[in-house]
Write a structure and sequence with these properties.
Elements: H1 21-40, E1 46-49, E2 56-59, H2 65-73, E3 77-81, E4 87-90, H3 92-97, H4 102-105, H5 119-128, E5 134-141, E6 147-156, E7 165-171, H6 173-194, E8 199-203, E9 208-211, H7 213-219, H8 228-231, E10 234-236, H9 244-249, E11 254-261, E12 269-279, E13 285-294, H10 296-306, H11 308-359, H12 365-397, E14 405-408, H13 409-426, E15 430-435, E16 441-444, H14 446-463, E17 469-477, E18 480-487, H15 521-531, E19 535-539, E20 547-557, E21 589-593, H16 597-609, E22 613-617, H17 620-630, E23 634-637, H18 646-654, H19 659-662, E24 666-670, H20 675-684, E25 688-691, H21 696-707
Parallel strand pairs: 15-17, 21-22, 21-23, 23-24, 24-25
Antiparallel strand pairs: 1-2, 3-4, 3-7, 5-6, 6-7, 8-9, 8-13, 10-11, 11-12, 12-13, 14-16, 16-20, 17-18, 18-20, 19-20
Helix pairs in contact: 11-12, 12-15, 13-14, 14-15, 17-18
């Protein structure tokens, strides 16, 4: 605080020379009177008194009255601590902090009021204050040993003030309590959120004010601010017993009480409930806390234990059932393998027998044509079986791909009908067709959509007897194009209807069955329809009542003009081959490359039948030398060959320095028949792709196109 300068002259001041002692005394009295007047008027704050030890300064009691009043009324503790660590001044606030009378505080050491474990910290704090203000948290120790968290701010006194330091003590008890409350709240929230068991806190009225994540999940909805019994409809095992929550709100703790939790549409759960009252410091009930432990599994184990004998019997029965299913699965696999063997061997038998008769010239003129027809028909049947197996493999492996484009439903259905007509007419089945030419287009792969319809027609033909009837319709239904194939055949048993589209499933899988096939056609049809985003369903009134298959494909638009029924859409995969339209290839020079002698000889024979000039090669290396020397007009090559394969060959040809040889058109004839194989062949440098087995007329026409330099859509 600021100090007024004393009106008293310095002790060593001497009276003016020449004055008598009386004058000097009078002057001193006047000086004393003026000093007293100044003190009374509050103009003097301190006196300087000379002594043998030197001048000493004494502060007057009223001089710092205003400052003392401020210090005495402040809530923080205020201390003046001498150089020896003794408290020379303390306000009332500090005395109250340490629970000591003020007179006991003054004259005591500050260290006496600090927790003993922190005395070294206090010493460091006081030492540090000698050079700059210092501060830190400490613990005050009261007379009863209680400790109070405080914050000390220590400042060294100025030289003209009392030696030592000034200390301001701030009580942190409330702040620490708030921090503890916040930490406790966070801990409680964390416990509630992380607890695997439901925990619920209710107020004194039983209204839920807190709930763990498990409790909220258990209730399946909002629980806060709802009454416990509304949010958690838990019922005691014996209705006459008081509910644990009710007991807790009356101050009674309940542990291990079994409750049932049941909600409509959900399985009943069993819980052990512990409920305890929440009390304040005066033991007043503020609410209750409820903890639930799910014992549903334990109850189920107990129930299972009590019915162990029944469970064992059920297990034995289940094992028997599983064994039966495994045996049935094994039989189904054996039956399927037997069926595959049968379906492959049957055409091979006919082909081998008739071919041997042809080789031995053991056939009359009229039998010769029949033998060729039988061989041709069985080759197509075997090819169809292989294609079905490949399609199933693609379906299982997820490799089935579609070449999607706008497809006129009427044209595709018409093409499928044309390909199926010979078989239908052979059984004298009446075919009724009702195709709405304005039905519109679907987005799909025309070949695969045609395959679906052909499979349905083939199935209808197989199971419809002589003089039966098959009806095919196409129409628009809302946002779909609906294609229906119905027949008057043998129908389907009701118990077999759910399995009609399953792979390898046939209503009659015995060796005595009347109809052949692998049972794959309908399964393939369903998968293809689903790939197109459509649906396929089947209806049948039972045996002898025929069946109806309905295919619905998403409608994508209508042509500007109606399309008449045009059955001439190419049906390479399904139409029987013919040798009547083989083109003439007179003078066309064709290089044939295949490592398989029989396949190469067949291709050479077809070409020579058309008067082409052939250059056979058994390897790609041999073919490269022939290309350079003979300059062929067309290259026909297999793909899968040892060493340099067909792809390597066509790349090498395209890299030849001779421009004419480099540009020779190439046809890939291969057993690699997938769509991706076709795309790769064209990307590598082939102009056309045909899959084995080849149909002679189609093959010859492809060679003719390439020899004339005409482009042709690749087919497989």
């Amino acid at each position: 605080m600021a100090k007024r300068p004393s009106t008293r002259p310095p002790p060593n001041a001497k009276p003016a020379p020449g004055k008598s002692d009386l004058d000097a005394l009078t002057a001193r009295l006047e000086e004393a009177e003026s000093t007293l007047a100044a003190i009374r008027d509050g103009h003097v704050e301190a006196l300087v008194v000379s002594s043998k030890q030197g001048p000493r300064v004494y502060a007057l009691e009223g001089a710092d009255h205003r400052y003392r009043l401020l210090v005495e009324t402040m809530s923080e503790g205020a201390l003046l601590v001498g150089a020896s660590g003794v408290i020379v001044y303390s306000n009332v606030a500090f005395a109250e902090m340490v629970d000591e009378p003020l007179e006991s505080v003054i004259g005591a050491r500050l260290a006496d009021f600090i927790a003993r474990r922190q005395e070294h910290t206090l010493h460091a704090l006081l030492e540090g204050a000698q050079t700059h203000p210092a501060s830190g948290e400490m613990l005050l120790r009261g007379w009863a040993g209680t400790e109070r968290p405080v914050y000390l701010s220590v400042t060294k006194n100025s030289p003209e003030e009392t030696a030592g330091v000034s200390v301001i003590v701030t009580d942190l008890t409330a702040q620490k309590r708030n921090e503890e409350i916040v930490a406790s709240e966070r801990l409680a929230s964390a416990i509630l959120e992380q607890s695997a068991e439901p925990i619920i806190v209710c107020d004194v009225d039983g209204v839920v004010i807190r709930a763990s994540a498990a409790a909220r999940s258990m209730a399946g909805g909002r629980v806060l601010r709802r009454h416990f019994f509304e949010a958690f409809p838990l019922q005691t095992r014996t209705p006459d017993e008081p509910h644990p929550v009710q007991s807790a709100l009356r101050g009674i703790t309940t542990t291990g009480h079994e409750l049932q939790f049941a909600v409509v549409g959900r399985p009943s759960l069993s819980f052990l409930c512990t409920a305890a009252p929440l009390l304040d410091d005066s033991a007043k009930i503020l609410g209750c806390v409820v903890a639930l432990v799910d014992i549903s599994d334990r109850k189920r184990v107990e129930a299972a234990r009590s019915t162990l004998l029944t469970a064992e019997r059920a297990a034995r029965a289940s094992a028997e059932t599983a064994r039966g299913e495994a045996e049935a699965s094994s039989r189904a696999k054996d039956e399927f393998l037997a069926t595959v063997s049968h379906e492959l061997r049957t055409p091979l038998n006919a082909m081998l027998g008739w071919s041997q008769l042809l080789t031995n010239n053991a056939l009359s003129e009229d039998k010769l044509a029949h033998a060729l027809e039988v061989i041709q028909r069985n080759v197509l049947a075997q090819s169809r079986l292989v294609e079905d197996l490949l399609d199933v493999s693609r379906i299982i492996s997820g490799q089935m791909r579609l070449e999607v484009q706008p497809v006129d439903a009427v044209r595709v259905v018409g093409a499928a009908i044309e390909s199926a007509k010979p078989a239908i007419e052979a059984k004298h089945i009446t075919l009724e067709v009702a195709l709405d030419t304005t039905a519109g287009q679907v987005l799909g792969d025309p070949t695969r959509v045609q395959q679906v319809i052909w499979n349905l027609l083939s199935n209808a033909t197989k199971f419809t007897g002589q003089e039966g009837k098959i009806r095919v319709t196409v129409r628009r239904v809302d946002s779909s194009v609906e294609i229906t194939v119905s027949d008057t055949g043998q129908g389907i048993l009701p118990e077999f209807l759910p399995f009609v589209f399953d792979r390898f499933r046939q209503a009659d899988g015995s060796f005595a069955r009347r109809h052949g096939g692998l049972g794959l056609g309908l399964a393939i049809a369903r998968h293809l329809v689903e790939l197109h985003g459509g649906t396929i369903t089947v209806y049948s009134a039972g045996l002898g009542n025929g069946s109806t298959f309905v295919v619905r494909l998403p409608y994508v638009g209508t042509r500007t003009t109606p399309v008449p029924f045009l059955p001439g859409l190419p049906v390479t995969d399904f139409q029987p081959p013919t040798l009547l339209s083989v083109p003439e290839l007179r003078g066309v020079r064709v290089l044939v490359v295949d490592d398989d002698d029989d396949s190469r000889d067949l291709v050479v024979s077809i070409l020579e039948k058309c008067d082409a000039i052939t250059f056979p090669a058994s390897s790609a290396e041999q073919a490269l030398s022939i290309i350079v020397s003979e300059r062929p007009d067309v290259l026909v090559s297999d793909i899968g060959m040892p060493g340099m394969d067909g792809y390597d060959l066509v790349r090498a040809v395209r890299a030849l320095p001779d421009v004419r040889a480099q540009r020779v058109p190439a046809l890939a004839v291969t057993a690699y028949a997938r769509t991706e194989d076709q795309r790769r062949a064209l990307a590598e440098g082939f102009q056309l792709h045909l899959s084995k087995p080849i149909e002679p007329a189609s093959f010859a026409r492809a060679v003719a196109r390439l020899s004339r330099g005409l482009s042709a859509a690749p087919s497989s």
